[in-house]
Fold these 2 entries.
Entry 1:
Amino acid sequence: MTDRPAAPLYARVAVPLPLPAALTYEVPAALARVVAAGVRVRVPVGSRKLVGVVTELTEHAPPDVRLREIDATVDLEPVLPPDLLDLGAWVAEYYAAPIGEVMRSLVPGGLRGLADRRVWLTDGGALAPSASGTAGRVIDTLREQGRMRLSALQRSLGGPPVGSVIDALAERGHIRISGGEARGVRYIQGVTLAAGPLDDLVARCGRSAPAREVVRHLHDLDRPATSEEVRQAVGCGPGVLRRLLRLGVLHSFTQVESPSLGRHRLAPKGEEELVLRPGQKSAVEALVAALESGGFQAFLLAGMTGSGKTEVYLRGVQAALDRGRGAIILVPEIALVPALARTVRQRFGDRVALLHSALGDSERAHEWQRIRRGQATVVLGPRSAILAPVVNLGFVVVDEEQDGSYKQDIVPRYNGRDVALVRARAADAVVLLASATPSLESRLNVERRKLSEL
């Protein structure tokens, strides 16, 4: 990050109140390197302190107004990328929605801030091989200093904000953050090999064949693993691992368990390779050509239930992934997610994330972070999934686009189908509206050549 200008700096902050515009605050010098568009900050509003989102920075303050200062930052780096900030501003203006309510809807409620929390190394982090870059500097600093406040760690390291590095290290179980876990978080035990030649470690196992197999498995794996993962791979009981820990052949550590979303998917079933019919094939070819061109294009796919629309847009998702781009699949209701999630998961594996209101706070925050980091590139959910922070969005599907459920009737009010079109245009992405009974608006847009019918 470049140094801030010497002139006073001001930030426009969208707070969660029914206000038509963001409020302006002065950025104190101590926070000038961290405050940026997309960062959440704590600001005084009347006699209260509220958390809002910085929408922009400026060197110009409103005339004849005595401004208050930002009290503290919640994040060490932006949690909202520029494209979502622009989309939120459009939603607020077009639907006459309070900008603060819109920005709050873009961030999951279970997403914890980092700046004021303390951080320290776990056993796994202390035993981990030396890392390079910023991650290595973070680990080295924590080895020297012990437990530190994240804001102090940021000052000690200097340079750009380290929030994404801290997130990644916490995800791997190398560091622990005080108070940073949402309710319902569980911990699991992991193990790693002690230092030393493989032959020496195997010899210390004695006559136990399962123990020797555990050591060889971890050596071949070349990384720490959860105790359950090791037991399943080797086929041994927990007593084998306990003995190896007592002998010093293994070291143990704990890490946060990733939430399982299996209950939000139907059980997997066998899937046969489908041969596309001529109509499906031509539709897929049109989508692939549009994705290849790299610009915005919008399509309408009409067809009765069971006509194979799902296979067409799943082929489109695959084409987007093949080109290094992400995808969003919208469905009108949460009840439709489990069946489609099974199919999408079978096709795209761990690259799939689910986002909907039936998830718990910790689950939703975990999935949202996976999307923001680029670990999940296919997002499935109802209308709110269009607000997911997908990296390099390339393809958007709106299934049953005519359904009234895409219209949100609480603040902030918006139409998920229309927001999908606006977001796709801004991202130079391809959008596919699919329906057995297309809406009158979409039929009219086909006649006006705003949509291409497949």
Note: Confidence is low (pLDDT under 50) at residues 180-185, 262-267.
Entry 2:
Amino acid sequence: MTASAPPVVLVHGFLDSPRLFRHMQAHLGAAGHTTHVPLLTPRTARGGLDRLAEHLRLFLDDTFASATEIDLVGFSMGGLIARYYVQRLGGLDRTRRLVTISTPHGGTLWSRLPLNRGIAQMRPGSAFLRDLDRDIDTLADVDMHSIWTPYDLMIVPARSSVLPVGTHEAVPVALHALMARDRRVLDLVSDALA
């Protein structure tokens, strides 16, 4: 890895906090990456994923010069937040790589529970997801990777974590939350950012 590698911004998922990424930060740090983990609130996504993406944009604008290229890694809902930032909030111009881990790109049946706006946006066929899919081909301008597990019980069906752009890799991890710290996943993220 070169000294000019972009900073890596890790985007957490539903009810998560930056602590979720402690293993990933250590792993990427050992590989020479500088990582940043914003706390996006509310963690329940009550106001919607688009609002959380706006919080991400503000964090990036406050943390980095406008010409600074970045790499984004999003876990679960965080992958949709990062994707919305790239596709709708000008992130395409500064994002070099986007790696999503167990992200419900095609929605998840769990989001049928009527909890809040952000959860509803993760429903299969939601207006939010249809809007992102409308110009999904713009992601071809980003080095795009999706990492998923066929055993995911939070992203149902699990294959909805596969984005039809870029590369995708299945890792047989038994639990959704373990995807953020499984060594095989950490190695794939590191390889994707190398």
Note: The two ends are 6 Å apart (CA to CA).
